[in-house]
Each structure stands twice: as structure tokens, then as C-alpha cells.
Amino acid sequence: MTAIDSVTLEVPDPAAARDFYTEAFDLGSRLRVSGSPAPTTGFRGFTMSLVVSQPGTVDGLFGAALDGGATTLKPAAKSFWGYGGVLRDPYGTIWKIATSAKKDTAAASRHVDEIVLLLGVDDVAATKRFYVDRGLSVAKSFGRKYVEFATSNIKLALYGRRAAAKDAGVAPDGDGSHRLVVGSSAGTFTDPDGFEWKAD
Q1: Which InterPro entries match (predicted)?
Q2: Could you tell me the residue ranges of all domains in the chain?
């Protein structure tokens, strides 16, 4: 199984960003930062999701991020699939924090059950083939709409760019650097949508 060990977010102020991410999410070595002045406008083409056990944990992480300067894109709320919300951190990355549970069953914690990197791509089928050719195994696939790969540590999923932006509550337009580097056992390459991977 391919391991995605880390994602590195490129930010203008690594020290401040490191403090924010530690206080807000505390994901340890799975989330890294590096300095970069690379320009980006609009949607960067990806979202990060934190899957947790219950609504109280969603609220705790959401609140910590907002206290650190994040802004709400979709307030945390109940839906037919569970409970969650979407925010943009002070450095431009979009985070979805969610649970399939609709009620708390224990005291809230800061534990994150799963991290998901969702790439919004131009052609889901073509990008799926690209990753399969590089040894990634498909765990779930819904035609040309959504693909989830069997990866460890951090889950990788593909969604159409417009659908990913709509799910995040932002416009799909954007250009420039993704400001994201995926650290993985899959090797060093750049995918069809310009996402950069490096051997971790």
C-alpha cells in the first residue's frame, strides 16, 4: 500500500503558520510547512479534511482554528450525512472538519481519526489512470466523479475541480501554485493537474 506520510503547505511565514497549525489541529509530522512566495489566486484546487468521531470534536477543532484567524466558509452544522463545516485558514488552505455521528457519545477530544487530501482535478478518469500507473490502488470509484485510493497515514481522493470547489463553498476559478507538496512512498513526480509529489 502506498503511504502518504505528509503534506507540506507552502506559506509566506512558516513560523507563524507552524504555530497556527499546532494550536488548531496538532497533526504532528503529517502536516509540514515551508516558506514560499509562489503566487496563487482563487481556489488552489485541493482541500484538506479532518474526519473525527463526534460533533463536539468538530466544534473544538473548528473553534481553535477560528480563534487562530481562520474564516468560516460553511458553518458547522448537522446534515443528512452527519455534522461538519468548512473553513479557510489564515494562509489560504481550505479545511473540512466532519463526523458521520450526529450526537456526542463521550467527552470531546482533539483526536483526528483520518486526514483526507482531496484533489480537485480537470479529468477524474485521466488522473485516476495516472496514479494507478504509479502503483496506487483504487479503494472506491464512482465513474468520472470521485475516486478514493488505498493509501496509509493520509487518504488521497479525487473529485472534479468544480465539484470540489462547490463542496468547499468557494468559486472554482484560480491559478498559480497549488502551494502543496505531497510526501509519499510513491516517488517524486508532478501529476496532470500540477500537484507536486516528493519521495518522503
Answers
A1: Glyas_Bleomycin-R_OHBP_Dase
A2: 2-35+42-199
Give the model's pLDDT for residue 182.
98
pLDDT digits (tens, 9 = 90+) for 76-102: 999 999 999 999 999 999 999 999 999
Class of domain 2-35+42-199: alpha beta
How many other CB atoms are there within 10 angstroms of residue 34's CB atom?
12
Q: How confident is the model at residue 194 (pLDDT cuts 50, 70, 90)?
A: very high
pLDDT mean over 134-140 = 97
Q: Is the pTM of this model over 0.85?
A: yes
3-state secondary structure the chain: CEEEEEEEEEECCHHHHHHHHHHHCCCHHHEEEEECCCCEEECCCEEEEEECCCHHHHHHHHHHHHHCCCEEEEEEEEECCEEEEEEECCCCCEEEEEECCCCCCCCCCCCCCEEEEEEEECCHHHHHHHHHHCCCCEEEEECCCEEEECEEECEEEEEEHHHHHHHHCCCCCEEECCCEEEEECCCCEECCCCCEEEEC
